[in-house]
Write a structure and sequence with these properties.
311 residues, alpha/beta, Histone, subunit A, 2 domains, 6-stranded parallel beta sheet, 6 strands, globular
Length: 311
């Protein structure tokens, strides 16, 4: 493990101060930020994804933010490819990579050394998608069951994206996703990571912060940002528009319903998402938790990371 590159991870549910702590830590230790947020990768989606502003970045280089077209469907496989390249470059320049974000799947997949077939076979995928539309989910799930019983058992017949992806991998490689996962579990970790998760001591405080953040997004013009994306031709089927905030506001715009009601739904979905993030993170016994009271104590966070992550 001593030869494995060392990185620091700052994660946690939404609205817990990850971005500010990452920047302040980077200032102190000569670090650069690599985003681990599945929606901040998209261009023109600044307000609803809470991207750090230029002022908030404080001159610290930030990577993997706002570089993908919102009509492009980004994936965990592409993230691993892009993040690995960024981290390699940062290490080559003798800087400290700091992975900051709340997308647990991206973080775990990057750290684990797991390999994904990054781009896939677009032609094969389109063929399978057309077949799905023609024969239906039950038939396609049955087709998957013949080659990958484990994956088929975990999926619903309505889950077109994952059924098609599983069949695509099998037809392209001759191996099921389940077999692929078993083989990659023996691969050593890609990085020696020290992981910190932020949260508030009281769940009610976290939810209050989330609600306030949504109010702030609405005030800053989230509705206009979503309208601009729709005007660009981005559709509700694009992965970018599945992001919390964009999904609800776009639905409201397209249906002509009340934006205020949509904003309340954004708050509710954001709270639910935070709960899922916490559930995901608590499975990891290697994470060190940093809990705030009412306001993030950034200096305390830096001190904790310096003691446990930079020694």
């Amino acid at each position: 493990m001593s030869d494995t590159p060392r990185i620091i991870v700052i994660t946690g549910p939404t609205a817990t101060g990850k971005s500010e702590l990452g920047v302040r830590l980077a200032e102190k230790i000569g670090g650069e930020i690599v985003s681990a947020d599945s929606m901040q990768v998209y261009k023109y989606m600044d307000i609803g994804t809470a991207k750090p502003t230029i002022d908030e970045m404080r001159g610290i280089p930030h990577h993997l933010i706002g570089f993908i077209s919102p009509d492009d469907d980004y994936s965990v496989a592409r993230y691993i490819e892009d993040a690995s390249s960024c981290i390699h470059d940062i290490l080559q320049r003798k800087k400290q990579p700091i992975l900051v974000g709340g997308t647990g799947l991206y973080i775990d997949s990057l750290l684990s050394g797991r390999f994904f077939s990054a781009r896939g076979d677009e032609g094969l995928r389109e063929k399978l998608e057309a077949e799905f539309e023609a024969v239906g989910g039950d038939v396609m799930l049955g087709k998957l069951r013949e080659v990958d019983v484990d994956s088929a058992a975990r999926l619903h017949s309505n889950d077109k994206k994952r059924i098609v992806r599983a069949l695509e991998i099998f037809e392209a490689t001759g191996k099921s996703i389940s077999q692929h996962d078993k083989e990659t579990k023996s691969i050593p970790p890609r990085y020696n990571a020290t992981k910190f998760a932020l949260n508030y001591s009281q769940r009610a405080v976290l939810y209050k912060k989330i609600d306030s953040r949504v109010d702030e997004m609405i005030a800053k013009g989230l509705e206009g940002e979503v309208k601009a994306l729709l005007d660009m031709g981005v559709t509700c089927d694009n992965t970018s528009m599945q992001a919390i905030g964009y999904k609800e506001i776009s639905s409201s715009i397209l249906s002509g319903s009340d934006i205020g009601a949509a904003a309340q739904k954004v708050k509710m979905e954001s709270r639910r998402y935070a709960k899922r993030q916490l559930t995901w993170l608590r499975r990891d016994s290697d994470i060190k938790w940093i809990a705030w009271d009412d306001v993030p104590d950034i200096q305390y966070g830096i001190d904790e990371i310096m003691e446990f992550g930079c020694s």
